[in-house]
Amino acid sequence: MKLQEKTITSIADVLELYKEDLKRVEAQIKEDLSTDISLISEVSAHLLNGGGKRFRPLLMMLCSRLCDYSGRDDALLASVVEFIHAATLLHDDVVDEAVLRRGQPAAREIWGNQASILVGDYLYSKAIYKAVALKNQEVNEILSTTTKKMSEGEILQLSKTADIDITEDEYLKIIECKTAILISATCRLAGVISDVSEKKKDALTKFGWNIGMAFQLIDDTLDYTANRDRLGKTLGKDLSEGKITLPLLQLLKNCSEPERPLIHRIIKEGSLGMDDLSFIQTLLRKYNSIDYSISKARGYIKAAKEALACFEDSTAKLSLIAVANYAITRDL
After folding, report:
1. What is the DSSP letter of 164?
2. DSSP string spanning 55-122?
3. Cα distance between residue 138 and residue 144, in whole Å
């Protein structure tokens, strides 16, 4: 174990160690993208080959290895969850009227909203079609419940746009549905195809849920702190779209009475100038709102690691811990 602890310390180590598994995933995604309709291929490839880190497929492969799985369905399900994730991104960009995705033009900017929505629908459908072919009722139940909850989360988020009265619990429910639920399902699916005990499937579910919560918390925090060139994010994007995430929620809780109406104006107007963003960033630092969000994310990561206690020490377990650490340290 000491040698492994020295060699598996970063996401780069994990990606190198499991590169052959990830090649299988890429081959599966390429196969599943095969279609005679060129528009589907073009839009899908633009997004799926656009620089995403395959975070969910990586977790699928690592959790499968943790459970000593030796079949081929792990790559198929990794492709399934990536298709579902890609479908949500296509739909999100239409709802948000996004211009960029991962530092390049969003699909809707190239092919329009109609194509983005329809290809997103296709990816959802293809994902379910591939999963059903496994003829595993538990897999079907997990994916159908997951996609339902994801849709509920998107609608809840839309209903809370620019709502300055949103509570922290409501915010946490949104990020649970939009991010944590799919990551949680990904990890549980690995346990299902590995036929491990309910205790271990529940542990994988808890691990994935906590990682997902932390991942989205950090993503929302990066909206105010990220290096745009390195991460491909537009600073203040969530704020300009009226999305009140945890850093802003914490700020609203702690700001002074004279500051509050100024913050409300920026949220309500939705047209964000550099002076507005700079003003909000200054206040976030003043009231330690960024630190609060990061601390909350660290709590989820701690819980995620603790969930793995029922598994024996292994290379896969150490790799999952490294991925958990990456979820809260990326580009902060």
Report:
1. T
2. HHHHHHHHHHHHTT--SSHHHHHHHHHHHHHHHHHHHHHHHHT-SEETTEE-HHHHH-HHHHHHHHHH
3. 10
Distance CA 229, CA 92 (A): 22
**Residues 328 and 301 sit within 8 Å (Cβ to Cβ):** yes
Distance CA 277, CA 239 (A): 9
Q: Give buried/exposed letters for 156-165 (b at 16+ CB in 10 A, else e).
A: bbeebeeeee
Closest C-alpha among 185, 182, 207, 202 to residue 306: 207
Work out whether the CA dihedral 140, 141, 143, 144 comes out positive or negative: positive
297 backbone dihedrals φ, ψ, rounded to 5° = -65, -40
Question: Does the pTM of the predicted model rise above 0.90?
Answer: yes
E-only strand ranges, the chain: 100-101, 104-105
DSSP one-letter code for 258: T
Q: Cβ(10)–Cβ(318) under 8 Å?
A: no
Nearest of 76, 83, 84, 44 to residue 60 by alpha carbon:
76
pLDDT per residue rounded down to tens, the chain (332 residues)? 444 444 798 999 999 999 999 999 999 999 999 999 999 999 999 999 876 779 999 999 999 999 999 999 999 999 999 999 999 999 999 999 999 888 889 999 999 999 999 999 999 999 999 999 999 999 999 999 999 999 999 999 999 999 999 999 999 999 999 999 999 999 999 999 999 999 999 999 999 999 999 999 999 999 999 765 555 567 888 999 999 999 999 999 999 999 999 999 999 887 677 799 999 999 999 999 999 999 999 999 999 999 999 999 999 999 999 999 999 998 65
**Residue carrying structure tokens 């060129």:** 38
106 Rama sector, left if φ>0, alpha if ψ -120 to 50, beta otherwise: beta
To which residue do tokens 């849920």 refer? 209
Single-letter code of the amino acid located at 108 = R
